[in-house]
Each structure stands twice: as structure tokens, then as C-alpha cells.
Amino acid sequence: MTELSVTQTGDAGVYGFSAVITDLQTAKVLAKPVLLTKLGMPATVELGAQPGVVLRFVVTVANGGHEASYRSDVVRNGKVESAQSGLLSVKNSV
Q1: What's the gap between Cα 7 and its chain centre?
Q2: Residue 1 exposed, middle or buried by CB count within 10 Å (0-12, 13-18, 19+)
């Protein structure tokens, strides 16, 4: 299971992206990446626990700062095996 969120930071035009990746069978949290990004600029994080397998997230906060698009890919040996994309509402930090 993956929980994603995007929040405005205290700095103008800077946003925080966070993910919580949990094993569905054990409920153990596997990773909690956090990224900072600027309005309109894609931010990417790649996580890998097995050789040749990567979980990649790309998030971009849309101009206006009210929503962000994201894409998550599972990549095995350089080839995308599955992908998901969507929109996230940006939360205010205050």
C-alpha cells in the first residue's frame, strides 16, 4: 500500500512530497521518502530493495499550486512493469 501527499512548505513556491510504502501482508513500513520541489518542476525519487527492481515516483505541482500530478512505476531491469498516475490535492502547511 502506498500513501502519497503534497504539502505547501513555509517557503514561497516550495512543496513537500511524501510517500509511505507499506507491505500489505505484514503492515510493515518499507520506506518513507520525502522530497522538496518547486512549482512546475518534476521531482523524482527511486527506491529499490531488490537488485534490478525499482519503485519510481515522479510528482509535479501544477501552476497555481492547488494540485499535483504523480506517476508511480515499478521498473524491473530497466523496463516498466506497471504504472499508475493521478492527481493529488495540495495541503496547506498551516
Answers
A1: 12
A2: exposed
Q: In this structure, are residues 68 and 61 in contact, taking their beta carbons and an 8 Å threshold?
A: yes
CA atoms of 40 and 60, how far apart (whole Å): 6
User: Which residues are CB-neighbours of 80 under 8 A, at least 6 positions away?
Assistant: 73, 74
Whether residue 42 contacts residue 58, with contact meaning beta carbons closer than 8 Å, is answered with yes
Cα separation, 53 vs 29, in Å, equals: 18
pTM of the complete model beyond 0.85? no
Tell me the per-residue pLDDT of 43-55, one tens digit each, with 9 for 90 and over. Answer: 999 988 788 899 9
